[in-house]
Write a structure and sequence with these properties.
The complex is a heterodimer.
Chain A: H1 4-30, H2 49-52, H3 58-91, H4 97-105, H5 112-126, H6 132-156, H7 160-168, H8 173-202, H9 205-210, H10 217-224, H11 231-263
Helix pairs in contact in A: 3-6, 3-8, 3-10, 6-8, 7-8
Chain B: H1 2-6, H2 18-50, E1 53-54, E2 63-64, H3 70-111, H4 116-127, H5 134-144, H6 150-157, H7 171-195, H8 199-207, H9 212-223, H10 225-241, H11 259-269, H12 273-298
Antiparallel strand pairs in B: 1-2
Classes of the chains: A mainly alpha, B mainly alpha.
């Protein structure tokens, strides 16, 4: 009886846990194919209609488009700002490092509702009306620290002698950066941008407080929940899921191919 | 040069060349000014708003600058049950997430260590929920356990629920929903710690006649503590401010409202900005105190 139980216990537990985490994803996917008359609660009939006409509910597609635009713009800004900070932290000695670290850590340790209500209170006090751009401002704010943490890990692996070699060969500062530092940091920057995009795209709480009349996809789902979510929302959710999983798989396959090449 | 003035005598090296420190300043300034403008000053705005008084005109949603500390007493008096409930829910959900996530993280980080394909596959499964809106996932749970659903009827038929009892609307549903949504945030940091675990230490424990349980508590668990600490923080903090799971349109009912629900309704429905702000300030203060005590007790100062 010696640990034969233990041998099976862990894999079984892990399998059950994964089934638990996958149930709502499978549910959302399956019910994107449901033929819906009034509400998408009970299963009626299999149909491709929702997928073929996913913009039949224009609000859903508009919200989705807004979410994409906001995620792209805020990711570009926060990746640029965050990469600069990460390089400074990883490469230079300067006073006020612990204060800088604290200010970067705080947004990650603050509940979203506090950041959302705080920024909304500030917009209110200053008299700025909320909309598309206030959402972008809010998203850059809360994704910035995550970009810094991700890129900083990559800066730490960088060999400073490569940059020195560039300078020895009479490259000026900007070509050292663009031809040596930046390409070496690129995988970290891409990972940070992907993380920032995902965080922005799925954000609801901070968005709700700073969106005014503007709708995003998560905000649409939240508002629609009272009446029942239309199947088109399931379609868009499933579509995003499939695209994201495909990207992750491509990245992983490429990484393992590269590892194989290095070993060969 | 605000940065230079900020943290004198800290880790920075004062003998660093002047030019390098100017470059660092140029790199840091845009992002840090951004956080100052849109993260720090909003916290100040929150405090200012929390002290405002009702406007003389009596118009809804209009407030004058003031120093009405009694807003805090009012918020506490009105919403104490929701405040305590938030922390109780967050505590239980964090512990449940730890219980579910630790074995997953252990399996991926230790057992699957020499099987890179399995490991990559399982890690993808861990982060997969991130790729579908958490609102859709939470709503899916609501549908699965809706009052007329087969799942609820089954629970009623085997006697887990009374015939007039339902899943949705209960504290259990809200806590389960919160737990579910934050499992990846718990699993990933613990996995990162366990991935680096030197398995020879575990073997050494066995060689010294420790039982597997003893080895786990004396060797494995303490070594994974940094991951457990950041995992519990990454779960507890967002859960304490969450208001989606506890919302009546999702998994909550009439007595499951948390602090986030109250902030939301005060801000949007009754436009009582001072009370909403006072509640947010109190939540933030509680989190700061909790985090600093917790981090000090567990001895991990380097979080970032």
């Amino acid at each position: 009886m010696k640990f034969s139980l233990g041998k099976w216990l862990l894999p079984t537990y892990v399998t059950l846990a994964f089934i638990f985490t996958m149930i709502p994803i499978a549910y959302t996917f399956v019910f994107s194919f449901n033929k819906v008359e009034k509400s998408n609660i009970a299963w009626k009939e299999f149909t491709f209609d929702n997928w073929l006409n996913m913009c039949d509910q224009p609000v859903v597609c508009e919200a989705f488009g807004n979410s994409l635009a906001i995620a792209v713009i805020s990711t570009l800004i926060s990746t640029a700002l965050g990469t600069a900070i990460a390089i400074a932290l990883g490469r230079y000695k300067f006073k006020g490092r612990s204060a800088t670290n604290l200010l970067l850590f705080l947004p990650m340790a603050t509940p979203e509702v506090v950041m959302g209500a705080g920024l909304a209170a500030q917009f209110l006090n200053v008299g700025i009306s909320k909309g598309f751009w206030t959402i972008v401002v809010a998203h850059v704010m809360f994704t910035l620290s995550f970009v810094v943490v991700t890129v900083k890990a990559r800066v730490a692996t960088l060999d400073p002698r490569l940059e020195e070699a560039g300078r020895d060969l009479y490259a000026n500062a900007s070509s050292v950066f663009w031809r040596i530092t930046f390409p070496l940091l690129l995988p970290g920057i891409m990972a940070a941008a992907m993380l920032s995009f995902a965080l922005s795209f799925d954000d609801f709480i901070i968005t709700q407080f700073n969106s005014g009349p503007e709708t995003t996809f998560p905000k649409f789902v939240y508002t629609a929940a009272a009446r029942g979510i239309p199947p088109e929302a399931n379609v868009i959710g499933s579509l995003v899921f499939i695209v994201a999983i495909a990207i992750v798989m491509i990245v992983q396959v490429r990484a393992s191919l590269k590892a194989k090449k290095l070993r060969a | 040069m605000a940065f230079v003035a900020l943290g004198q005598g800290s880790a920075g090296n004062s003998s660093a060349p002047k030019k390098a420190s100017r470059v660092a300043f140029i790199l840091l300034a845009p992002g840090m000014i951004y956080l100052g403008l849109f993260f720090l000053t909003p916290l100040v705005s929150l405090v200012i708003t929390s002290l405002k008084t009702a406007s003389f005109t009596g118009e809804i949603g209009m407030y004058d600058y003031g120093f009405q500390v009694s807003n805090y007493a009012y918020a506490l008096d009105q919403y104490l049950p929701q405040i305590t409930r938030s922390f109780i829910y967050a505590l239980i959900a964090t512990l449940m997430a730890l219980l579910i996530s630790y074995p997953i993280a252990y399996f991926i980080g230790v057992k699957a260590r020499n099987k890179p394909i399995l490991q990559a596959f399982l890690l993808t499964l861990v982060i997969a929920p991130f790729f579908i809106s958490f609102l859709l996932r939470t709503f899916a749970w609501k549908q699965i356990f809706s009052n007329e659903s087969p799942a609820t009827q089954f629970l009623q038929s085997i006697g887990v629920l009374a015939p007039d009892q339902y899943v949705i609307g209960s504290s259990f549903a809200v806590i389960a929903g919160l737990t579910y949504n934050f499992i990846p945030f718990m699993t990933l940091p613990i996995y990162t710690s366990l991935e680096r675990l030197d398995t020879r230490l575990v073997e050494a424990g066995a060689d010294l006649y420790a039982t597997p349980v003893q080895t786990f508590w004396k060797v494995t668990f303490p070594l994974s503590l940094p991951g457990v600490i950041s995992g519990t923080l990454l779960t507890f903090i967002p859960i304490s401010g969450d208001y989606v799971s506890a919302s009546r349109d999702f998994l909550g009912g009439s007595d499951t409202a948390m602090i986030g629900n109250v902030v939301e309704s005060n801000f949007f429905r009754i436009q009582d900005y001072p009370t909403a702000s006072a509640l947010s300030v109190m939540l933030m203060a509680a989190i700061v105190v909790l985090v600093s005590v917790y981090v000090r007790k567990s001895g991990t100062e380097e979080l970032l």
